[in-house]
Amino acid sequence: MTDPIQDALVALLPPLLGTLTALETIGRYLHPPLRPALIEPLGSFDTQLRAAMAAFEAADWPEPMHPFRDQMALACLHTLRAADGLRAAPRDANPLFAASRALRQTGRALEALYPVVSMLPSVSRFFLEPGREDVVAGSAEGTGVLHASNDVGMRGGFSVYVPEWIDRSIPVPVVFTLHGGSGHGRLFLWNWVREARSRGFIVVAPTARGDTWSLMEPEVDSENLAGILAELGRHYVLDPTRRLLTGMSDGGTFTLLSGLDADSPFTHLAPVAASFHPMMVAMSEPERVRGLPVYLVHGALDWMFPVSVGRTAAGSLKAAGASVTYREVGDLSHTYPRDENGGILGWLLDGTKS
């Protein structure tokens, strides 16, 4: 790269990665009422990013580098859309909904940014857990971020991330992560890519066939999940003892509905911010529930499904003989807690509890 291009890139990366980190923090602590103070982690990152992006695009890029330039510009565009939407959200008639809608742009930004991990060490580190910086980027066939009939706007498909460095001959754990109501697997995938790339497991983010998971007819989406798992098994060696089904909100509720079924192919369940009724357990086969590893996460500030729901779920499952780990998070509202992924993975992969 010529010096002006290199200078433009060096100026762009800190505000881009800083804005994305701030968006992740804001999403974690999103809680009604939406107060302007919640936006404070953005600071001036997005203002700096806008200026740096203009200089980046104005640089004299040689034609062979246009794809790289365009990919970075797309990541910046979605990042700024998320930031702009968040800043406008407190003035919206429904601030929390507006903020949640804006944050969906973050998934698009991360998808646009990920292809350059093998080119930029700072971006590679961004997609790794702290202390895992020794992971080497790669591009082996059948690895990386892949999609099957899962463009945003499509239903019933799935997105998957396969770490580029895994040994394809060794059984690998798999995590199925289910989005919340009106969500989409392609965007929800990014809640787990950093951990999957760091620790070497496959993460799958299906999209419900309807607007949300088939809570009234669980067999509809359950059959789809089983079919996706079977399809993966034709291409990768999957660990038969570590197949996790997890999800947020409606996805967490469906994790229980589907995962408690006797025919479920999943070995571990980790519902987050899920609704629950004791009939879920009462209608399950006792042999399925007895000894089943379940990791329940619920926020003490959850405004959609009060924390009492999580406590009831933990008590009912324990009484039925499930092996329950219950995590009640004091500062968690009804949003996805990325910081709980480590505890879930320690429980799944190492048999430890946080």
Descriptive key words:
354 residues, alpha/beta, Four Helix Bundle (Hemerythrin (Met), subunit A), Rossmann fold, 2 domains, 13 helices, 15% strand, globular
Report on the structure:
This protein has 354 residues and is α/β, with parallel strands linked by helices. It has 2 domains: 3-126, Four Helix Bundle (Hemerythrin (Met), subunit A) (Up-down Bundle), CATH 1.20.120; 144-350, 3-Layer(aba) Sandwich (Rossmann fold). It is built from 13 helices and 8 strands. It has helices at residues 3-28, 45-58, 66-88, 95-113, 121-126, 185-188, 193-199, 218-233, 250-259, 279-282, 286-289, 307-319, 341-350, and strands at residues 144-148, 158-162, 172-178, 202-206, 238-248, 268-272, 293-299, 323-329. The chain has an 8-stranded mixed sheet, with helices on both faces. Helix 9 links the parallel strand 5 (238-248) and strand 6 (268-272). Helix 1 runs antiparallel to helix 2 (45-58), helix 1 (3-28) packs antiparallel against helix 4 and helix 3 (66-88) packs antiparallel against helix 4 (95-113). The longest helix is centred in the first third of the chain and has 26 residues, at 3-28. The relative contact order is 0.09. The mean pLDDT is 95.
How is the biggest beta sheet arranged? 8 strands, mixed
Specify the structural class.
alpha/beta
Number of strands: 8
Approximate strand percentage: 5-15%
Please count the helical segments: 13
- Top CATH class of the largest domain: Alpha Beta
Low-confidence stretches: none
Morphology: globular
- Overall mean pLDDT score? 95
Radius of gyration (Å): 21 Å
Strand order of the largest sheet: 1-2-4-3-5-6-7-8
CATH superfamily of the largest domain: Alpha/Beta hydrolase fold, catalytic domain
The first-to-last residue Cα distance is 46 Å
Number of domains: 2
CATH topology of the largest domain, anyone? Answer: Rossmann fold
Share of helix among residues? Answer: 40-55%
